[in-house]
Amino acid sequence: MQVFTDISSPLSLKRPVITIGTFDGVHLGHKAIMAELIKQAGITGGDAVVVTFDPHPRIALGQQVYLLNTRAEKRRIFEDTGITNLVEIPFTAEFSKLPAEDFIQFLVNLIKPEMIIIGYDHGFGHNRSGNIELFFKLGEKYGYRVARVDEQVAGNSRVNSTTIRWLLQEGDVEKAALLLGYYYEVTGEVVRGNQIGKLIGYPTANLFVDDPNKLIPAMGVYASTVRVRGMVKPGMTNIGMRPTINAHKLTIETNIFDFDEDIYYEPITVKLIRRIRNEKKFASLDILKKQLLQDKDTTLKILNDPELNIRMAE
After folding, report:
1. What is the reported pTM?
2. What are phi and psi of 290, to 5 degrees?
3. Helix, strand, or coil here: 72?
4. Whose CA, among 161, 200, 226, 249, lies 20 to 30 Å from 40?
5. Are 271 and 241 spatial neighbours (Cβ–Cβ below 8 Å)?
6. Of 273, 292, 280, 268, nearest to 196 (Cα)?
7. Number of independent structural domains in the chain
8. Dihedral sign, CA of 286, 228, 86, 96?
9. What does the alpha-carbon distance between residue 50 and residue 193 come to, in Å, rounded to a whole number?
10. Buried b / exposed e across 236-272, counting CB within 10 Å, b at 16+?
């Protein structure tokens, strides 16, 4: 995938078919747009182009937002979806003041789109004053065609990033996966912990996530899969404060089954498959150890369930 971050001059693209958005989560609604984008680019023989923003507009404006994807995760999902050209527009407070029609003119000057594929509720320009009707209205003036993609529904829920964030904050990673089209993942570097897990026979990989805006799901114990050194291994992940040892800092720690290698300061990716239980304080490490044995048994039953979408978990 070709990534463009320099927007100081017009880009050299062939009969571009484009879509525009923040695409946080790159969920099933976004993928419906991209499927249409790739289809139309194939019909015209043009380049399929996703136009997005970095950083997220709300972050650039000093607002708090917890992101479903880091920049690296989003790029990878775009590429896996089949996108061959990605334009990342540097978003600033000054750029946010661009009126909606001026934003369209900016896109025309930068990319010269032959066709624009857009979601039904897309807003753009200063205070999101532009909408899909404006794209249609100005199409003849600027020489592009427009196609609209309707709202997507999965599992009787509307597919949107806000709903997915809420589900993850509630710990419902299964329902979130239905809307995302993949299990939610957290990638980070393995750092040293206090070695308590190793002491009781359940060594954990402690994850450091360097993006402070990455959404971390609700505290609790999760059945998970772990991508480590090119392998996908089963595991169980605890997100929480480790109350049994009186820790006071949120941690993400994963016991990787059938794995005993030194991976300190290496990256791993944890996919959260199902939340097993709340985090709780145990009276002793021995009681905690017995609970972890039960958690492991529960996790293996979940991960060995033939109904589990293994492709999504890899």
Report:
1. 0.91
2. -65, -40
3. helix
4. 161
5. no
6. 292
7. 2
8. positive
9. 40
10. bbbbbbbebeeeeeebbbbbbbebeeeeeeeebbbbb
Question: pLDDT of 57-100, one tens digit each?
Answer: 999 999 989 999 999 999 999 999 999 999 999 999 999 999 99
**Preceding amide of 55 cis, omega within 30:** yes
What CATH number is associated with residue 191? 2.40.30.30
The residue among 224, 171, 177, 199 whose CA lies nearest residue 288 is 199
- Find the Cα–Cα–Cα–Cα dihedral 134, 137, 140, 144, rounded to 10°: 30
Structure tokens at 241: 């404060």
Residue 53, φ and ψ in degrees, nearest 5: -130, 145
* Structural domain for 276, as ranges: 182-313
- Asked whether residue 83 falls in the same domain as residue 135, the answer is yes
- C-alpha 257/C-alpha 260 separation (Å) is 8
Nearest to 189 by CA among 264, 267, 88, 127: 267
Q: How far is CA 144 from CA 19, 114, 226, in A?
A: 12, 5, 44
Please write the tens of the pLDDT for every residue from 112-129. 999 999 998 899 999 899
Structure tokens at 198: 């190793």
